[in-house]
Amino acid sequence: MSHHDHTADPAKDDDEMDMFTQQFWDERYAGSTRVWSGKPNQRLVEQVTGLAAGRALDVGCGEGADVVWLAQQGWLAAGIDVSQMAIERGAEHAAELGVADRTTWARVDVLGGEPVPGGMDLVTASFLHPPLALFAQTFGAIAGAVRSGGTLLVVGHHPADASTGLRNPALAHLLFAPEQVVACLPAGAWEVVVAEGQTRETTNADGDTITITDTVVRAVRH
Ligand SMILES: C[S@@+](CC[C@H](N)C(=O)[O-])C[C@H]1O[C@@H](n2cnc3c(N)ncnc32)[C@H](O)[C@@H]1O
Fold first, then answer.
1. Residue 137 belongs to a domain with what CATH number?
2. Potential cystine with 118: which of 145, 179, 198, 212 (Cβ 3.0-4.6 Å)?
3. What's the domain range around 175?
4. Closest ligand 1 atom number to CA of residue 125
5. Beta bridge partner(s), residue 202
C-alpha cells in the first residue's frame, strides 16, 4: 500500500463494514504487489519534526513506515492495525532497519472496540477512514490514548478529493473534514493547533499531476 496516495482504495461491492475487518485487510495486504516504500507520510514528517521524542502510537499503521520513521527519530513507537499481516511486515521492516528495539507491534481492532494502549506522548492515525456510525467512537478512543500534554495527529483524505476522480466514488462518504475530527475532542480538554485541508501534488493512474487535499488535525491534550 502506498504511503502517499491510496488510489486503489477498496471494495466497491463489499459490504462497507467488511472494510474494517482483519480478513479484508489481510487479503488486501496479502494480494498487494506493492513493495515497501519505506517512506513515511509527508504530513507526519511535517507535523512531528521538532516535537520532543517520547512514546508514540500509530493507529492503523499498515506496513509500518510511519512507526519505523518515528523510531528512527528517537521515539519509542508502537504500531497497531487490524491486519496481522500488516503488523508482521512492519516488524520485519523495523528489524531490517535496526530499530526493532524501539518498536512494538500489535493486532488491535480499533473499530471493533478493542482497547487502545494509552498514556502516549504522541498518537497518530493516517488514512484511517471509519464509517460515520463509528467515527466519533473510533477517534474518541484514539484521542483517549494521548496523555495529558501529549499530541494527537489525524491525517485523512479530505472531502474535496471527491471531485478529483482519485477516490472511489462509492466511498466518498468516508472522506472526512478537519471539523469532524475536532468534534470528537471534548471541548476544553484540547488545544487544536492545526485543523485544515492541506493540498499536495500527486500523480493519478493516467500519469497526470493532480492536486489532492489532506485533512490534517493536530491537537494537544490539556
Ligand atoms: C489506508 S490504510 C493506511 C495505512 C497507513 N496508516 C498509511 O498511511 O499508509 C488503513 C489502515 O487501517 C487499518 N484498519 C482498518 N480497519 C481497522 C480496524 N478496525 N482497527 C485497526 N486498524 C484498522 C487497515 O488494516 C489499514 O492498514
1. 3.40.50.150
2. 145
3. 16-221
4. 6
5. 210
